[in-house]
Structure formats: structure tokens, C-alpha cells
Amino acid sequence: MNAETTSASGTGPAAPEAPGPVTGEIARPVARDVAGAGGVAQPAAAESGGRAAADVANPVRLRIPAIGVSTGVSALRLDAKGQLVAPTSFTRVGWNKAGPEPGEKGVAVIAGHVDSKTGPAVFYRLRELRKGAKIHVDRADGSTVTFVVGRLARYPKSRIPDKQVYGTAKGAELRLITCGGTFDRSRNSYRDNVIVFAR
């Protein structure tokens, strides 16, 4: 099942859009051809290097009823190494603004913290998501795009399968990313990333 967009009224499909203890380390490499350690890879918008023809509105809210998430979305930038800068908030998620918006053709990436020094963070229960769960992304134009979880995986940060996680997509896809696995006190970071694949 592919991502489904509804209008602001929620009455049906939206009209097509006009063209137009955690550290800052969330996932592995980024920038289309760069492979480094740490950070979140930037998904390629399209093989041709451009955006999909129909640009959609930016995400403003993420809702995942199955795990009780309803939170704001902030835009995240890439650092000088091409890695996604971690969200500054532990209660909000961040979207990779260098990649596609959720609902636009390609792989959109939303990252969030699993915990903080004071307790669970926004994606603490992300590992509980199962195939078929719905993920709703509300956008600035009042529309909502809904994705369905296909699978969940955990990878060591040093061995993220970039093509599977951040590669090109024929339609609109979404990846939710947080930290997982054991905590490495010497690096003040988790060793793995938990990644949800949805479309």
C-alpha cells in the first residue's frame, strides 16, 4: 500500500499539488555519495538529482496512534560532513529538509530521540511498531499523508545498508529513525539505529 493523502477536511483524496543519554548522533552517513560514521544519511530526491515534479507542503506534525506519538516536526539541516543534525528537542521529531517532504516522491526521513538524561523521549516506543501500523504526517497546507509500516529493523550505526534505508523510491516512502541497542558510555551514544520502513 502506498502513502495516501487526504485533504484538510479529511473527506477524501486531496487535490494534486501544483509543481512547485543521547548525543547528536542519530544514524549513519549521508549526503548522496558520502559514507561516513554517525549522523543520518540524506535520501536522494531523485536519480536525476532534482526534486520530484510535485513539491508538497512541509510536515508540521507526526502522529503514530499505535505507540501514542503526537508531536510537532522541526526541519533539520545537514552539517558540513553531510550528516543530519540531531533534533534539539527530546519531545519533537526532526525532518531532513534536504530530502523529500513526506508524501513527495522519494524517501523522506524523520528522526527523533529514544531517550534523554531524564527519561524516555519521543521515539522511546518506536521499536514496538509492527507491520500494518499507520503513521500520519500533517502538513502545513492542512493536508495529511498516511503511511503504513512495512517493517522495522535494527542496524549497527557502522553498518547501515544505505541503499535500503536512503535509496531512491518509485513512490513516496518514509523512514523513522532513532537510536537503539546497547549504550556505549565511552562514546555517550547508542551503538545501533532502529529504523521503520513505511510507504
TrEMBL record:
Q: Where is the composition biased (Low complexity)?
A: 7-24
Region labeled Disordered — which residues? 1-24
Task: Give the Pfam families listed for this entry.
Answer: Sortase
* One GO molecular-function entry: hydrolase activity
Instruction: Please indicate which superkingdom the organism of origin belongs to.
Output: Bacteria
Keywords noted in UniProt? Hydrolase
Residues passing through the membrane, by range: none
User: Which protein are we looking at?
Assistant: Class F sortase
List the source organism. Nonomuraea terrae
